[in-house]
Amino acid sequence: MTIYRAQVLDTPEDPFHGGVLRADADAGLLVTADGLIADRGPFAEVRDRHAAEPVVELSDGLLLPGFIDAHVHYPQARIIGGLGMPLLDWLERCALPEEARLADVAYARQVAAEFVSGLADAGTTTALVFGAHFAPAMDALFTAASARGLRITSGLVVSDRMLRPDLHTTAQQSYEEGLALADRWHGQGYNRYAVIPRFALSCTDELLAACAALHAAVPGSWFTSHVNENTAEIATVRDQFGCEYVESYHRHGLIGPRTVLAHNVHPTEGDLECLAAGSAAVAHCPTSNAALGSGLFPLKRHLAHRVPVALGSDVGAGTGYSLFKEGLQAYFMQQLLGADGVALTSTHVLFLATAAGAAALGLDAEVGDLSVGKRFDALWLRPGAGSPLDAGLRHADSPELALARAMALAVSSDVAEVWVDGVRVKYRDTET
Ligand SMILES: [Zn+2]
Description:
single chain
């Protein structure tokens, strides 16, 4: 076993409903050889209780729960930064040509390796990942994620209209390929399978029905897609289906507690009621919403309807893997909403990037905070000596302020080490 000594910040209680930041300035976390947090308390007390165990000193900086990215696209790892286009233009000119390249499995393997490195480097230990349109490319992702040791929920992305012909499938093919992938990967290590129609706009009812059948055929599988991102997209979906956007999924039985829908920037009241009734979660992706000009996320309305919200990077429309940046952008956009926004604190942002994601993914019994009984999924934020963030952390007079400075200033290179289940998945070899 190992004792980690650090300043530990986490959010075991929902700050949108009365929870506060849990901050221990000099904590000890006892972690078993297989990654379970077995004891926690003031360092001196934990050390006395387990005097024979080695101590890892992480006393500079902050130890946070590993980040949980509730919406990120593996095939878009190489196209981050395609600015200047609204959603449908960006898809046609930027995203879909790149996604078609993953038909080449050698290419897909390279992208998969870069993608999982991007996640781990940012301190992201768990992710709900939009996959590729090609089954061999999905094998490449699950293989790369398994080798790195990240907790990945992902699956084949399917569409049968309105994309490029080389990205289209059929209902039968999507079911058969999805089932075969789930047989290979669902429940293997940290991998879980997700059923993923790209968005209702690019899916017929027949394909969505096949998605529902696959979701039912794979117990414990997740369902994810996009919803209500862009006004032109929403108008087209209304024309296609003759109903509200969430209903296009709901009428196939696809809105439930294992559902996470990305964006929901422009929901109707009916959309929110349907999501709430189904206990489905929303992944809020603020840098993507800003980059594509999609709009300002109505967090207050989601909270009023008690629709769970987590944070997603939405790489590659989002501008990077770091949930520090994503959290800061979430804060910015709520500020811009004025009276319609939610005045987010650093505690809210940490919750959205950790425990909220764990709950949305049904993993909250295992990860999301650093309580006794959870797995040791954590990131150690340790900025370079003398950097603005280092100075800011050293001169913060409260843990909330330290956390706010981390949100404002931290980038992935400030994340020195990252663990999943007690195993290091990133370390900075310049450390001494
Ligand atoms: Zn997306």
